[in-house]
Specification:
two-stranded antiparallel ribbon; 28 strands; mainly beta; 22-stranded antiparallel beta barrel
Length: 563
């Protein structure tokens, strides 16, 4: 340490000396002449001198800033009372809402009238109340007649007229409704021999049916209660030109009770009493009771029950008391889109002349009517929806019938038909299929087929029951301006037994029927529409029943008015 201090002292001395010499040289303008000689001097350098510095004081306290002294401060507040000037302004609260779509004007009534060949007069009318949450009621009228027909002009003319009223009332949890209809159907027995054409008086072969039908019902299907029911009563009355009459009084009850969301009971009951007056008076009674239990097990739905039935028929020694099992199993692997089911059962089906004369109006007097006894049926089927546009339905069944009726030409008059029955059991294999494509309200296409293979016990053929019936249909709505309807249907041939004057008989086969019908409507406005209908465009006078050819091309055109 001391050595460092000595070296520092020496450096200081040298620096001072050098500075002094520069200063003296600057003052002497004459330079280094003789007048500028240095005087002799002695410089003593003390080597052992020690430079000592005083010890600095150390302060460990932080700098302290004293806060200002708090003084008394007086704050004054001034309150001003501001008031809005009084004004007569009515403030209203407006709630923003979405504007409701206006309901389209509803035309509850329309009239259609038209004319066609064969002296055809066409009239349809439909009248109904407008939108109402309390009731629904209306009336309909219809008249379609042809003064001439396919055989012997006026001797094959037809006429069908009807008038009906209906209504429903909607009470709290209850719906009450009813219907009343009157109909008059006129036909002629024109299936006589061609040799007699032009010789038969049409008044002697005229047939007229007067029909009255009335029914009333009530149900609580909209009540939301676990017990639902629908009860009804119906009266059908028929009278023809030959003093035949039939009255049918029927009661019907459908009920179900839901134990929970997965199971429940059903009970259906039917009672029908028929009084038939012809050459003899016949009373026929039918009663049916069908209880069942239903259970939902996941995608599986099971129904177990029985059908208990009684009939008072005596045709072919009919069985009075019958019990049929009722078992059905359904599986829905795709909810609301695919249903597969199978089951077995049986039924006693009511048959009346009211129904038969609508199916075949050329029945002879004094026919014997019996209920159909479907002794056993084994069936399976499916129903599917594809892409919300295509609906498929299929069913296969093997059935056993007793007293299944067939139509056959009468021995006494080949222009009339009798009811004949198979002496024994009639076995039937039934295959049914249907496919419907429905795209909105614009396009609708469909195909359906019904095949029945009959195996009779005593009859040579299943008279006038064709094996195959099929149809293709379609509708097209062109911008709500033009509406097209078409139907192409096929009915296979069937057989009838014809008796000759010498007592022999022969089997005659009817035609295979292929028929095309078209209809087009053109809407001028919401009120006026014109239409044209074309039936049997292929123009073939086919026979559905032996000796009864149908009309050729039948054209009808007219106009309709809605209001």
């Amino acid at each position: 340490m001391k050595k460092r201090l000595k070296l520092a002292s020496l450096a200081i001395v040298l620096s001072v000396g050098y500075s002094y010499m520069n200063t003296a040289q600057a003052q002497n303008t004459g330079g280094w002449g003789e007048g500028a000689k240095l005087e002799d001097a002695e410089i003593v350098v003390e080597k052992n001198r020690v430079i000592e510095l005083p010890q600095a004081a150390r302060n460990f306290e932080k700098f302290k800033v004293n806060p200002p002294e708090a003084g008394a401060r007086n704050v004054r507040y001034r309150f001003m009372d501001y008031k809005l000037p009084s004004q007569d302004i009515e403030l209203q609260l407006r709630v923003l809402t979405i504007k409701q779509d206006e309901l389209n004007k509803l035309y509850g009534n329309y009239l259609k009238a038209g004319l066609g060949n064969y002296g055809t007069l066409y009239l349809k009318g439909y009248f109904h109340n407008k939108r109402s949450k309390d009731s629904s009621y209306g009336a309909e009228v219809s008249h379609v007649s042809s003064s001439r027909g396919p055989v012997d002009r006026a001797n094959s003319g037809t006429g069908n007229s009807s008038l009906g009223v209906h209504g429903e009332g909607y009470l709290q949890g209850l719906t009450v409704g009813g219907r009343l209809n009157y109909g008059r159907d006129k036909y002629h027995f024109y299936g006589y021999s061609p040799d007699l054409q032009g010789l038969v008086d049409k008044d002697t072969i005229r047939q007229v049916f007067n029909r009255v039908s009335a029914d009333g019902y009530l149900h609580n299907h909209s009540a939301g209660t676990p017990f639902l029911y629908k009860a009804g009563v119906k009266v059908d009355y028929l009278k023809d030109r030959y003093d035949m009459s039939e009255a049918n009084l029927a009661f019907k009850l459908n009920s179900e009770y839901g134990i929970d969301t997965l199971s429940g009971f059903k009970v259906d009951a039917d009672l029908s009493v028929v009084s038939h007056k012809d050459s003899a008076n016949v009373n026929r009674t039918l009663f049916k009771l069908a209880p069942s239990y239903e259970r939902q097990l996941g995608a599986l739905k099971l129904s177990l029950g029985a059908n208990i039935a009684y009939t008072g028929d005596t045709v072919n020694d009919a069985r009075k008391f019958n019990i049929y099992p009722a078992v059905r199993v359904g599986v829905e692997p795709i909810k609301n889109n695919l249903l597969i089911y199978a089951g077995l059962g049986g039924d006693l089906q009511r048959v009346t002349l009211y129904q038969l004369t609508q199916e075949n109006p050329f029945l002879a007097p004094n026919v014997r009517v019996a209920d159909i006894n479907k002794g056993m049926e084994i069936y399976a089927g499916m129903s599917a929806n594809l892409a919300n546009y295509v609906h498929l339905t299929g069913r296969v069944a093997y059935q056993n019938f007793r007293n299944l009726y067939f139509y056959n030409n009468s021995k006494d008059d080949v222009s009339k038909f009798e009811l004949v029955y198979d002496d024994g059991v009639t076995n039937v294999l039934n295959i049914y299929g249907e496919a419907v494509f429905n795209y909105s309200d614009e396009i609708r296409l469909g195909l359906k087929a019904d095949y029945n293979k009959y195996n009779t016990a005593s009859l040579e053929q299943p008279f006038h029951r064709p094996e195959l019936m099929a149809s293709v249909f379609g509708t097209y709505n062109f911008f709500d301006k033009i509406l097209f309807n078409s139907e192409l249907y096929y009915i296979g041939s069937s057989f009838g037994r014809i008796y000759n004057p010498n007592g022999t008989f022969e089997l005659r086969e009817t035609d295979n029927i292929v028929d095309l019908n078209l209809k087009a409507d053109y809407r001028f406005s919401n009120k006026f529409t014109t239409f044209v209908m074309a039936n049997n465009l292929f123009g073939k006078k086919y026979e559905r029943f032996v000796n009864y050819p149908s009309k050729s091309i039948n054209l009808i055109g007219g106009i309709s008015y809605s209001f």
